[in-house]
Design a protein that fits this description.
The complex is a heterodimer of chains A (414) and B (155). Chain A has 414 residues and is of the alpha/beta class. Chain A folds into two domains: 138 residues, Aspartate Aminotransferase, domain 1, CATH 3.90.1150; 255 residues, Type I PLP-dependent aspartate aminotransferase-like (Major domain) (Aspartate Aminotransferase, domain 2, 3-Layer(aba) Sandwich), CATH 3.40.640.10. In chain A, 41% of the residues lie in helices and 16% in strands. Chain A contains 16 helices and 17 strands. In chain A, helix 14 packs across helix 16. The C terminus of chain B is likely disordered. Chain B has a single domain, classed as Sufe protein. Chain: A. Chain B has a four-stranded mixed β-sheet with strand order 3-2-1-4, covered by helices on one side. By secondary structure, chain B is an alpha+beta fold. The chains are: A alpha/beta (414), B alpha+beta (155). The interface between A and B is medium-sized, with 19 and 21 residues.
Chain lengths: 414, 155
Amino acid sequence: MSALTKTIAAFDPVAARADFAILKREVYGKPLVYLDSAASAQKPRPVLEAMRAFAESEYANVHRGVHFLSATATERYEAARQTVRAFVNAQYTDEITFTKGGTEAINLVAQSHLSPHLTPGEEIVLSVMEHHSNIVPWHFLRERQGAVLKWVDVGDDGWLAAEAVAAAITPKTKLVAIAHMSNVLGTVTPLKQIVAAAHARGVPVLADGCQGAVHESVDVCDLDIDFYAITGHKLYGPTGIGALYAKRAHLKAMRPFNGGGEMIAEVTREHVSYADPPARFEAGTPPIIEAVGLAAALDYLAALDRAAVKAHELDLYTYAREAVRGFNWLRVIGDAPGKGAILSFETAGMHAHDVATILDREGVAVRAGHHCAQPLMERFGVASTTRASFALYNTRQEVDALIAGLEKARKILG
Amino acid sequence: MDDTLRELYQEVILDHSRHPRHFGALSGATHSGEGYNPLCGDRVKIYLHVDDAGRIADIGFEGKGCAISQASASLMSDMLTGRTVGEAEKLMGGFLHLVKGEAAGDLSPDDRERLDVMAGVSAFPMRVKCATLAWHTMKAALEGGQGSSTPAKSE
């Protein structure tokens, strides 16, 4: 048996599909073909069951009461933090802050790490392929504090060169903010080299890992990265929860984010002092049930051979990429070496929304639009693209349905 | 093809979107407006010339968008040209009801028939915004005069 077949055999997508009840449903009388996992992934039964079981037998607020359930719920919530720590291979559990999602994680860095020390004219380096969640928090700092955004271009194939990022760093650079994997192009960025280049200039690096953490293994220690943001719902977990990994040294120096319960040490009429991280950044009742769900999702992934899952996803991508090569009316955007399982394309004479509507009636769910990445759309001279994204539960038959749907769209609209 | 899809992408729509009428900027426009659909990033710019008698003498539009939005802008420009502002407003009101699958009120039988090609959109709630973008923009242009701008309204 060759090494490749061995890897693929280590993961059985058909067996995995059985864990996702929604994949059995039909839309418009056709089997659902869900190719929009980059927007949000479906949830396997163990995640839903863990949340339900927790809510039914162990739920209470955390870090507050002295009663039995409060202690149990606190234990589960903190165990979830430990699970996230292991998932990104952080050294310390207190380097993990729970957030509402990836967006809040990045806003937390912008507001609590960068904003307090930022002076006008100081720079933030980011790539043109960032998601709006890794753009707008920096625009806030531009609008409010005179920060300068330094944009790093990608190649025509969507590749982001570490050298290009390094070249954008100046003595005024305060942060490099880069996606681990592009949600449109599928480009996986050379994070380790980017971090090394930035650190050589004394500049910290934030990675938006919302896509990257789903498909790549993440080792924040090996990357030596300063901040890494993840979101639960793309990781087959629930909505409403994400996490920020940040190095202890940064967290200690960061000012509070939202004010409220749980983030304080002491409150008097005249004075307030704050809890240590990560509680300092988790004001209010956190998403407790969701934390349990996220931990279950990460456990679910950890139980799989993730290299084999990735090989399976890439097999689907390559299969689709080859199939559309014959369509001279279709232009794939994003062909970088080593890219992940996302297929974005423009169709001549056919708008992405029309294509997506016709695919939808075939049961094929794809994303159409600017994908919250308008600077990237501008870079490639398109208003929108159609995007099929592949997850662990997709199959080659589903790619066939996509291709047949595209041919049909061409027949109707072309 | 299923019937709702056939209804949405019927030949008249595809013809309007491939060969839009009134496409292009209008020099000497008395009113103009720009509409934007943040969902898909599509933009449309509408120019019109309202004469002294309050009649829409000419309409032009520019923009890129899906078949539905382009056809809708083309059809609208065709139908509103030559009408008074009051008549145009009545027609626009009727259209906005029609694409949401609501009773279209007091549209004339002739107008109702011409707009019927857009009625299929009501079966595609996610696409109603595409159909209404040009119409909301026209409304804003008429209300706001030269250089008005409107974001796409939520339906």
